[in-house]
Structure formats: structure tokens, C-alpha cells
Amino acid sequence: MAARSEAAAPGIVAARTRSGPLFRARYLIPAIYIIAVLLPIYWLLNMSFKTTNEILGSFTLWPQTFTLENYEKIFTDPTWYMGYVNSITYVVINTVISVSVALPAAYAFSRYRFLGDKHLFFWLLTNRMAPPAVFALPFLQLYSAVGLFDTPWAVALAHTLFNIPLAVWILEGFMSGVPKELDETAYVDGYSFWRFFFRIFMPTIAAGIGVACFFCFMFSWVELLLAKTLTSVAAKPIAATMTRTASTSGYELGLLAAAGSLTLIPGAIVIYFVRNYIAKGFALGRV
Amino acid sequence: MNKVVNHKAWLFVLPVVLLVAFNAIIPLMTVVNFSVQETFGDNVFFWAGLRWFEDVLNSERFHASLFRQILFTFLVLVIEVPLGLVIALAMPRKGFWVSVCLVLMALPLLIPWNVVGAMWNIMALPDIGLLGRGINALGIDFNYTRQPISAWFTVVLMDVWHWTSLVVLLCYAGLVSIPDAYYQAAKIDGARPWAVFRYIQLPKLKYVLTIAILLRFMDSFMIYTEVVVLTGGGPGNSTTFLSIDLVKAALGQFDLGPAAAMSLIYFLIILLFSWLFYTLMMRNDAR
After folding, report:
1. Under a CB-based contact definition with an 8 Å cutoff, are residues B3 and A108 in contact?
2. How far is A201 from chain B (nearest CA, A)?
3. pLDDT tens-digit map of B221-242
4. Chain A residue closest to B209 (CA)?
5. CATH of the domain spanning B60-281, picked from 1.20.140.150, 1.10.3720.10, 2.60.40.1120, 3.20.20.150
């Protein structure tokens, strides 16, 4: 644990040079990678500000006739903007459910030995391996049968299939890095279990909760196959709205690009909030 | 860490088990049910035994898509894991630029998968895409809708663009968590950079690397949306991976029996690989 507090360990290169210069040759690698990452995103943004004529008629590196028409259409048409609302609704429900049930489970796995624990852990992981393509049809039948079809709850619950195992896995890693003496000291000090868990333990692994939330949000936000299968009109996610537009009303590339650009925003906000947890480091296990 | 034997820990795990079982066991049984029966519609089913399994295991089509799947996953892992590790090693360890790097690098991870497909579809178009136009300008004939090689190149490049950042984030978090004292000890011993990497950094990255590799293995083996949007499995069948083939069989031709049998075989293959990998990585684990 002491290790984590002095986390900003300089790399081996930094250890060799006395006072590090602002830019080292090795920084070229991440720099080039970031440029490569941004190029397709730039191309998407570029296209979203163009008119359909310009997209199809010519090859231009930036919009010649800058237009906000595509965005205007998305923000004024409820079938478009409701897609974002629906997606965010089920992603948030999913993240909350996944992380809150994973917390006690991860604690049990990291602290106790119980009947069938190892098998149970691996069984949970196997659900992360179930291809959504396999489960799409049975899920449709199951959620129709329980009357949740076309609600955000159906998608949120379906996504727990792969998010709970991941959340348990990540949280268990973080919790194993916390020495057990912490628990024991708290009990000696007269804390009840739940008071210890909420007041002491959860703040200690705040970074783990943040990272687990990030992963749950991410995998729920980007998944399309199940989200599309389990909804029709009322809870249709933005990603499904996009595929339908692409297929029915011709190929409106500008509109598609604008809708795609807008899907970047929630993700960017979430990364902004968890960046510090990643920057501080975690090893998912004992350091 | 010495764990206490406590069977009451099951109570902590129970919510997770119930939720995951609801999502996993009922649909899985549905699939098993379909896989051993024959239907001609109208919900009338006949016992078919293991016929579908034999059919699938002997079909050329399944072998071909399995081969493509394994090749794709292999390529993706061989490129993304070392690349991600190198980028993480080269990144700065503290300061303002860390946040910038992390936020920008994580962007591709949080784009819905169909948008990723659509982005690369636009990006690689030979006439209006930056990448397609660029490659053709180099004098190489590139058209991913017609040439299997170009299609493969685009699909692999898309996946590398999409997922290398996951490896970078996890490895970076692992690297930062290594205490400074380890580097100082290495410096006193006069260890060379390679030795530092091999005996300090790599062992400390064990858990994060296991998670990164397993996640990349599972997700690349289950890849569906991105490729469907980008190439639709074509040209011909050249980029028809297992999930795409499965959905074609289940929804396109409504061969529920064979599709269900194929699902189970598919799932078992992922399970087997993951189990092997998990056991190998955790073999020397003292926990």
C-alpha cells in the first residue's frame, strides 16, 4: 500500500538522466500513436460538418462549405436525440447494478475461502466469454417472457451478463492489494462489518470502484447487438437509430458522421473523470 | 494472502450468482434445447440428437470461418499486446501530459462499435476516405470492398486502432504502481534496461497483462458489429468470422438447430482457450 502512495515512479530512463528534459526521444512513440488514433476521429468530425454533396462529390481535407445542418437535424428530431437518452439510461442503470452487486462478491472472493469459490470465480468469467451473437435470440425470448422487452431495464440487465464478471474481476484485484490488517484493525476498533465496509473499505478502494465503473460504462455503451435485439421503439439506443437511418433513407453520410461524433462525448466525459485513477496506477493484485 | 474459511461468504456472492444465472443459464438452456431438436416452424420440434453437432463439426463452412477467426485473433493479439506494452513503457510518468495522453488514447475505446465500423468504412473508402485515398496515392491498388487482402488489412488495422489503447491503459496503470525502490535497487545493481524490464516490470505487470490479453482474446474472438458494418463479412466470405457466420445462419436462414449447435461449439472453444490461458498465467500464483 505504501507503494501506491508514492506512485509517481519515474521510468528507468528518468532514473538515469539527472534532470529530465521536457521532451525525450521515446515520447515520439506515444505521440505518433495518438496522432494515428486521432486521424479517423478527425475524419469523422470533418465529414459531419460537410454537406452530403461535398462528401460524395469531392475529396477535401476540411469542410469547404461548413454546415451545422447535420447536428441541427439530430437535436430537433426526437427519434434522434431520444436515442442518446435511451442509451445513457440503460448504461447508467447497468453500471450501478453491476458495480453494487460486484462489490460484496469481490470482497468475499478476496477475503474468504468458501465452498466452490475457485469454480464459481471461473464460472463467472465464462459469462464474459459468451458471444452476444449466441445469446441474442434466447435473450429476446427471455425478456419478452418477463415483460421487459423494449425497456432500458432489459438492456441493462442483459449487459450485466458480461459486466458483472468483469467488475468482480477488477474489484477483486484491487481488494487483494489492500492488506487484511485494515479489516482486522477496524473490527478491533469496534466497527461493525457494514460500517467498516462503507466508511473505511470503500474509500480505500475508490480507485478500483472508479476503474470498474469505467469498464462497465465502456462495455455497455459500445455494445450494439444485444441492445438492438432487446429494443424496438421506446428504448431504442442511439447506435440502433444510426444503423436504421443508414439502411432506410439512403446513405446520409453527413448525418451518420454527426451522430457518430456525438457518441464520443459521454465517453470522453467518463475518461476525463477516471484518468487520475489510471495515472496513479494499479496492479490488480499485491504489489 | 491467507484467506479465512467462511462459508457465509456465499451470502455476499449470492446477488451476483442470481443475476448472472438468470442471464446465463436460462438462455444457455434455450440454446441447448434448440441444438438437439429439429423444427419445421409452428413451434413443433422433433428430437434430432447430436446430428447438428456432427453437421457443424464436419462442415467446410464452419472450418473456414473458424480458421479465419483464429488467424484474426492471432494477428490482433500479436500486434496489440507488444505495441500496447511499448507505448505504455514510452509514456511519460507524471505531469500534465499524462492526462492528455490517457484521455486521447482512451477515445477509441468508448465509441460504439457500429460507429467504429462506420468510421473505418468512411476512412478506408478508396475515393473519399483518407486512408483509402492515401494508400492508392502510394501506387498500391487498394479497395477493401473488392480485394480480400485489402479487407483483411482494413479490419486488422481497425481493431488495432480500436483496442491497442486498452492494453496501453492497463499496462500503464501497472507500470506506475511499481514502487520507486525497485528501480533504485536495479540501478545500484547496475541492471540494464532490458533486465529491468524482464525482471522488474514484466513480473509486476502479470495481473494487468492477464486481464488485457484475456479481454482482447475474448473480444476479438467474439467480434461482430465492427466487421459487419465495415465489410459485411465480404468480399465474398473473406472476413466472415464466427459470430458473423453464426448470425447469418441463425437469422438469415433460420436454421435454429445447426445455429444453436454452432453456438455451443463456439462457446466451448472460447472457454477452452480462456481456461488454458488463465491456468497458464496463474500457474505460479502464490495466492
Report:
1. no
2. 15
3. 888 888 988 888 778 888 888 8
4. A283
5. 1.10.3720.10
